[in-house]
């Protein structure tokens, strides 16, 4: 692409954050001869959207789209992740990953609607987000051309450090941030805030106490728990009730926002991990996912209560795969569509109510009930024999041991010390 | 077996707890004509072992074995579970399951050494423990005969309720417990205490606050965290240090006991779950696993830090299988031996130090370091380009999207709403 | 149950084959006080159904059901297995396993309709079939009582060998077979014939050449191949055409029967294996599955042609699980219903035509075409560059190698000899 | 790199085949200023190695390496694949894939020994081989620079078709092939020959009968089988015997060559498939793998005979993963080293003898025996009850059905038609 000016100018839809980086990219794209449409998705981050709009216009954006995607983000992206118990490498609840296909989908819709053949973003060349954005773009708009300035030598060689961006901004009338940048980068949305880079790159250093914006420090959290009841249907929450206050929420966005509030108040959902990027390197990330953490635990509980053991075992394997696809950016892939379909099927009977408390960073499951429960109180009871014949267990055990017989001949004994 | 008196009397090794049930079984076995050897394993439960010994002798046990298995329980059973990140159905750390093969192994050793062809236990006919005990017995001593009174009609029809046991006890001079039985049953060892049955059988009822014996109620726990550093080698802890106090432990039993103390003090490791028994029914269990929970988190952290991504993915799948085997009682099976070997191999480079804090029921990872780290601070840095060429990412993404091309023809577009 | 005579007599539905064993069981059940309804399923085995009917009536069956299940066997049981590429332990196409739930389902329907609370079968106590029958019964009719004489001591201790059965038969007017029994047992249906036991129990002995009834000895098969074209839709065959003769079949039963004829003529689908029974022992089995083998290969071909790589990878894993469930008797289990649903979903685009030849025991795929093909001739062509940019591959490879970098430091080199 | 001449000239080790393509690359690299060392691996392909040597020298190669890798190819690469039952997408025995790391490893050894920082190959930009070569190179020699001319625009734009190569060859004194090129490309080694491209790119076209070089057309193969006995130890063949002729082979290379001869004579191991490349596209390939196919079947048989069922189930999953790694080029990756270690462990008891016949394209297993057999003839016998108590099976089945009970309440019945 480089320095060639296009006639008539090509249109590019730029994922615009209002920050220094994407403001510079906006101007740079114009310099490169593009008509630039900016697009800023509201996925629940704290942002002055009006200011961002004005800023984009003042920098010469041909059109400015500010899109409120919060409801569809919860319903179409977070909810399937809850159903899947999606967790990456046993710890990360995928708050950033799950937002990317939601954001990129609308970007592509705008590009198609505006007749733009180009899209652009400010994601770096070492991260996961570039992949998540672009795989979504290619899947939904195969002919699209993607401009990723942080992978274009003439861009990244020109803007080696923040100082270069600042100079460029000043020269081109881009408002320069007055507050100093935090010594890390962050990404926020309704589901979580992630923190990485800068001083966090040393995996041994502890995160500073004032880092977290979404959750209270557990040490400063209330000294008594809040008890919530979450009602599920088909594996997604349909209602949350504060047991004492009687207050309840019942739309997806309200439910999730309320769980964020409750989780945030009690410091729930903070983790500090090293994870494996799709690109092959390990990185250190700190995440706070208050509402998502509560839902993860509550869903797990109602699922185990209502789902057959062996179905769940298969579904668990599919969930692990789903989490990898989501992390790696393959939401809009044939395999992810397939797996989502299967997981959705598995959730048909996942319904009922879970009571839990949130307190000092922790979620405690307290009890559950369900019209679809597979829990059979009489069958399991120690006090009631019921239909169950204990003698059957003898046969069951003996048949399970048949395989061992031949294995116990001399010389084949398990080599454990002491035997 | 039933009412026939054997001449000369056969010898049975009874897993004896000192409680009402196994005391009655002891006497009943004698009535049935057996010579009874009692065996009580010390795996870290709170118990008056001397009193139990005397009681068994007074009830006519031919021999009494009290065996301190704590060190081997930690080294040979808990440590491999830590390496495997063994967790059943995403939540249960398997504290009961992992003790069973340890206990049964020694029981079999005693049976062989004493020339006994029979072993007996007091596990119920609906539970997992009968399976765990007996599969171990059959694997290590295929010719053994197992007497499980709670599955023998003439026994369980005679002792339908606790009242029957009490009457039998009184009649046979078995000391009857003076304190009333808790309205639930519990199983304790070094790794955890489990609570189930009785009033806990209603899955909706909250557990009473005074249930827990191993961990403090988080609400009553100290208001400031303790910070620990755990050092790992080959995937197992070799040292734990209290960072502020400078105190440290470095033998397996001491390390684990100290982690129990720290975790217990801060209320770490309580869960309330419904789980799927091997026998096919769902049951509700409440567990407290203070030290095990700390180790689970610390090990996960150092493992991800030092293990290749794809190796870990395979190891994770093996760990899930290992947890199922362990839960179902297959520790001494060919497949479990195989999986333990593979997991052990995967842990060769899992070494380094993890810093963490325990506070109000929660474990927080703070930082980690390792001579075997695969984390490359320069490679991942946002500020340093290093050897990494961002342009490569473009090719990587495009090739990953090749599969989508054909899928995007008309009629094959993902059917997500809004597109 | 045993010797007690029931008043009024209970009704039992007996799966009756017309042979010596189940004829004796019929009479024995009557002796035990049952009203016996016999049920014989036509699932494609060679059998004189009229003679069997008369025999059952003459032996005192209260009612006799002869049910032609061939069409539903193909459509509802074989077709899903084809979709799943169901193969047990990499070799066995599950011809016996897949028939069992089909047979037992009708037996249960008859039992419910006739108000019978008992069902009975002549399967042995060491095999898989008892499990497959009974799990189906319990799943579809949980209150059912199952009478499995070969697991009832008073039956199996009375009929220790074939001689005992013969004597009993003579005594009770049961017609005794005049031809000597083959020195092995066999099970036949539309999908396959299996041979086991007797002289086949020695795993080293070669199977006699005259064993096979469904397929020609490849040495005696025609010296030129037959070329067939099979058309699939949603993963199941909808038409088979003999390319030279122009002859074609297009109903499930006709298609499968014709493939059996063609495969049989050319000796296709013979295997001699040792397999692992669910009950824990290894057994030796010899199978001939002519039509099923052709379909297995043809379906595999059209599936790979039309299914996305990653979807297929997941589906392959589900297929392995499905085969295990099928083998173990869990067709009517929640997990098998779930997996069938998922596999069915994966087959939506599996359509097109496969040409193949059958010759001397072998199936050769010759070519394939499909309107839903994901094969892109231009993309893959060595002569056309198309949209594909070879430079992208460089980035793809380099990013895939990022993980190796840190691993190549001194001391971490792969320890392969010579490097 | 392009047109810059390096002083002093850099050295590149070129994987040289002696054909037109790599001869042109040799000369082109010299033009580009490199000192070129050619390297030709003998992995069992039919080739005039002397002529290739002379040709390379005459074209200006600074040094010429002809390396006989056949023995290490069999022992270090084919044998582990046999142990793993490595098969890609259920059909392809990976004959090309398994040769690549073997070839590239030596190339890297030569590069290191000769102080060359560059390696080059003639693999195309759309295929798998480029990845397999290069991942091996990066893993074993991370600092290496790879020159892949078919991915360098100035090369591939200059040589668009074969005509361009011919002209270049004539101009630079490169001997031009006199026989016309086959209308497909092939790759041959000891394990197999693959055919693809050209007229084979149409997936519907049948392969011409004269394509195959390694196997006889089954129609022309002998009319009577050869019977072989293969002896295994630790999962690899240690001896093959022609049962009638008494002839035997017992070194890896001899064993494998002899199996190729036998399989080739009988037309064993031909497949025609569409497969999924790592690069994301589907391609059509035709393969003949005579010896490898025999070994695949024989190993499967002895493995099932000697390996515990559940161990094998886990090993099977690892084998599927291994096959994918192998296909995708990850032989020298941490995960593949790990999986090979695990699979190797699983093979410890895989020993014994398998008798089989090869005939008209097919391999028939006839019988097997082993000192490590887990097959228990008495246990499985229909005529002997042995230790096995059939009553145990009743309990086993009932406990397995416990999960179904709750599922059979009204409204939860399986929705299969007819029930």
TrEMBL record, chains A, B, C, D:
The gene is ASS1. PANTHER family: ARGININOSUCCINATE SYNTHASE. This is Argininosuccinate synthase. Pathway: Nitrogen metabolism; urea cycle; (N(omega)-L-arginino)succinate from L-aspartate and L-citrulline: step 1/1; Amino-acid biosynthesis; L-arginine biosynthesis; L-arginine from L-ornithine and carbamoyl phosphate: step 2/3. The keyword Cell inner membrane does not apply. Residues 12-175 form the Arginosuccinate synthase-like N-terminal domain. SUPFAM superfamilies: Adenine nucleotide alpha hydrolases-like (SSF52402), Argininosuccinate synthetase, C-terminal domain (SSF69864). It is found in: Cytoplasm, Cytosol. Keywords: Amino-acid biosynthesis, Arginine biosynthesis, ATP-binding, Cytoplasm, Ligase, Nucleotide-binding, Phosphoprotein, Urea cycle. It comes from Oncorhynchus kisutch (Coho salmon).
């Amino acid at each position: 692409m480089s320095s060639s000016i296009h006639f008539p100018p090509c249109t590019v839809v730029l994922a615009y954050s209002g920050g220094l980086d994407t403001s510079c990219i906006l101007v740079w794209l114009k310099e490169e001869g593009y008509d630039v449409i900016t697009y800023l998705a509201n996925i629940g981050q704290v942002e002055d959207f009006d200011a961002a709009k004005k800023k984009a216009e003042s920098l010469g954006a041909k059109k400015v789209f500010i899109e409120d995607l919060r409801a569809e983000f919860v319903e179409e992206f977070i909810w399937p992740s809850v159903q899947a118990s999606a967790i990456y490498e046993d710890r990360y609840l995928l708050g950033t990953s799950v937002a990317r296909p939601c954001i990129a989908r609308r970007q592509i819709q705008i590009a198609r609607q505006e007749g733009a053949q180009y899209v652009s973003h400010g994601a770096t060349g070492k991260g996961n987000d570039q992949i998540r954005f672009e795989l979504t773009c290619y899947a939904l708009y195969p002919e699209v051309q993607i401009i990723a300035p942080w992978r274009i030598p003439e861009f990244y060689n020109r803007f080696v450090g923040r100082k270069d961006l600042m100079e460029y901004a000043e020269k081109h009338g881009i408002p320069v941030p007055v507050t100093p940048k935090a010594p890390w980068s962050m990404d926020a949305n309704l589901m979580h805030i992630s923190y990485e880079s800068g001083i966090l790159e040393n995996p041994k250093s502890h995160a500073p106490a004032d880092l977290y914006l979404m959750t209270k420090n557990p040490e400063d959290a209330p000294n008594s728990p809040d008890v919530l009841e979450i009602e599920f249907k088909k594996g997604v929450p349909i209602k949350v009730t504060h047991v004492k206050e009687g207050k309840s929420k019942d739309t997806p966005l309200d439910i999730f926002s309320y769980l964020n509030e409750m989780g945030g108040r009690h410091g729930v959902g903070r983790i500090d991990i090293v994870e494996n990027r799709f690109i092959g390197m390990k990185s250190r990330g700190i995440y706070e996912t208050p509402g998502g953490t509560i839902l993860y635990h509550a869903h797990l509980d109602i699922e185990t209560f209502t789902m057959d053991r062996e179905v769940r075992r298969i579904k668990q394997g599919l969930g692990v795969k789903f989490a990898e696809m989501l992390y790696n950016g393959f939401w809009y892939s044939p395999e992810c569509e397939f797996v989502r379909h299967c997981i959705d099927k598995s959730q048909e009977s996942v319904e009922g109510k879970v009571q839990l408390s949130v307190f000092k960073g922790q979620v405690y499951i307290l009890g559950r009930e369900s019209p679809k429960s597979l829990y059979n109180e009489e069958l399991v009871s120690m006090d009631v024999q019921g239909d169950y014949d204990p003698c059957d267990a003898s046969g069951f055990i003996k048949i399970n041991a048949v395989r061992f017989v031949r294995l116990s001949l001399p010389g084949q004994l398990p080599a454990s010390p002491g035997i």
